[in-house]
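Hi support team,

I submitted a single chain yesterday and got back a structure, but I'm not sure I'm reading the token output correctly. Could someone confirm the output below corresponds to the sequence I sent? I've pasted both exactly as they appear in my results page.

Thanks,
R.
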Amino acid sequence: MPPPSTGYPKTAMDVVATIDEVRTFETRGGNLRFVLRDDAGNEYTTFREAIGKRAQELEGRRARIEFHEEQRDRYRNVYLDKVEPAPDEPDDADTDPEEAAWRTAVDAAPWLVGESEPHEAVSPDELYDKLKPFKNRVAEDIKDGDDKAT
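Hi R., thanks for writing in. Yes, this is the structure output for that exact sequence:
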């Protein structure tokens, strides 16, 4: 039997943004509340110290921000669930298709090997044999897309 609903819908989301600032406030109950503000002016709140400290470490940098919203009557609360560094945006939009394909293949490696959390190491040769055909298909797809765009 599922747990009873609180009656407040939750929506989980994530965004990549620059962390402008992280402020801390002490609540009346003595707890520490962290408020992260991104470069678009959005604010996210957490009471979890590990997440708040990580957000402070990433202040001024691009980060992937995971959060969920809860609507309580007329108030919308935005809670910070996770924050981690985000890769910088590439300066050049004309990325080499082979390079982009390898990045895609490496990102897809857990699914190509068969497990997102492998229980044992995969040999480099086995990993290469699985990634190379996938990389080739992605590179061909990118090149075909480039040909159609011109």
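A quick pointer for reading it: The mean pLDDT is 82. Let us know if anything else looks off.

Best,
Support desk
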